[in-house]
Amino acid sequence: MAFDARPKLTRENLRDLPPLCTDGAWGTELMKLGGTPAEMRDFWNVSAPEKVLQVARSYVEAGSKIILTNTFSSNRIVLEGHGAADRVAELNRAGAEISRRAAEGKAYVFASVGPTGKMVAAGELAPEAVEEVYAEQAAALAAGGADALCLETFADIEEARAGLRGCLKACGLPVGVSFTFDSGKNKDRTMMGNTLEQAYAMARDGGASFVGANCGLGIESYVPLAQRFVACGRELPIWIKGNAGKPEAGPDGKTVYRATPEVYARAARPLFEQGVRFMGGCCGSTPAHISAMAGALAGCLK
Fold first, then answer.
1. 142 in a domain, yes or no?
2. How far is it, in rounded angstroms, from Cα 85 to Cα 34?
3. For the whole model, what pTM was predicted?
């Protein structure tokens, strides 16, 4: 039976979804389509929507059952730095609509919500202000047709906590939180020193519908961390999206990621066996990486 992503997701039934392959990197894929390295490609949701749609469709065609949106930096704080604080609703709604077009009932759309770049734990931004920022973004993403929201690549647990509150208040969609663990002796803490056990507890107690990790580490390095996540409890499904290895400087000065699609295929079974519900790629991963992982995951489910 073909996968059908049309049934409406709720904060209750999201936990009933089977293990699914998500998408891969958006930033590195969009960079292949032009523009300068410093260009914020969230603006392409309006100025070059066909390029954004191309990336989204490439992941659906590769076998992704969950795709994100090109809205990682589309919160008011980040947009202020680009003179575009008044474009939050426009960019987020357009980003969600593009991914919805690409999904065509074959994949769910989990809208990407990234950090503000300000550390709440360090007093750079008040929690109440963070709530307002993310409530504004969440409302626009919901209006654009997102099925769920994913607060991703967070290093500050206090910012994530406030962001989760804001998203939950602004819409009725399921909201998950994904942290980046790339610090500490064992690379199992966020940049701010938060442990994954603390991250799990915050997400569970804060009303999140899933929790996990992305970026920072290669996909294979997240296998032992996934085991620790699962050991925290069975209340929340686990989300893992690892990089295609460590970023390296190529001969032309551009950043390259050397992990092959086969690395993602090999990671699928141990992640599945650890109980990870949603798995995919982050920086450097491509539709080829996701196709390999989706195929391997399908084999696990037989």
1. yes
2. 24
3. 0.96
**Rounded to an integer, what distance in angstroms lies between the CA atom of residue 266 and that of residue 201?**
29
- Joined together, the tokens standing for residue 21 give 């392959």
Q: Is the pLDDT of residue 248 over 80?
A: yes
Domain count, the chain: 1
Report the distance separating Cα 12 and Cα 30, nearest Å. Answer: 34
Q: Average pLDDT of 294-302? A: 96
How many angstroms separate the CA atoms of 142 and 149, rounded?
Answer: 8
List CB contacts of 39: < 8 A, sequence separation 6 or more: none
3-class secondary structure per residue, 218-265: EHHHHHHHHHHHHHCCCCCCEEEEEECCCEEECCCCCEEECCCHHHHH
Q: Is residue 2 one of the residues assigned to a domain?
A: no
CATH code assigned at 231: 3.20.20.330
Residue closest to 81 by CA, chosen among 47, 42, 54 = 42
Q: Which two tokens stand for residue 34?
A: 């032009």
Averaged confidence pLDDT in the chain: 95
Handedness of CA 196, 221, 265, 151 (dihedral sign): positive
Per-residue tokens: 57: 């469709």
Short-list 274, 301, 278, CA closest to 290:
278
In a domain, 289, yes or no: yes
pLDDT one-digit tens code per residue, 10-60: 999 999 999 999 999 999 999 999 988 889 999 999 999 999 999 999 999
| Residue 213 bridge partners (DSSP) | 179, 240
Mean pLDDT of 144-151: 98
Distance from C-alpha of 46 to C-alpha of 254, rounded to nearest angstrom: 27
- pLDDT score at 16: 94
Phi, psi values for residue 215, rounded to 5°: 65, -170
Question: For residues 281 and 256, is the Cβ–Cβ distance under 8 A?
Answer: no
Per-residue pLDDT tens over the stretch 181-199 = 999 999 999 999 999 999 9
Residue 66 domain flag? yes
DSSP notation for 80-122? HTTT-GGGHHHHHHHHHHHHHHHHTTSSEEEEEE---S--TTT
Domain holding 112, by residue range, is: 17-301
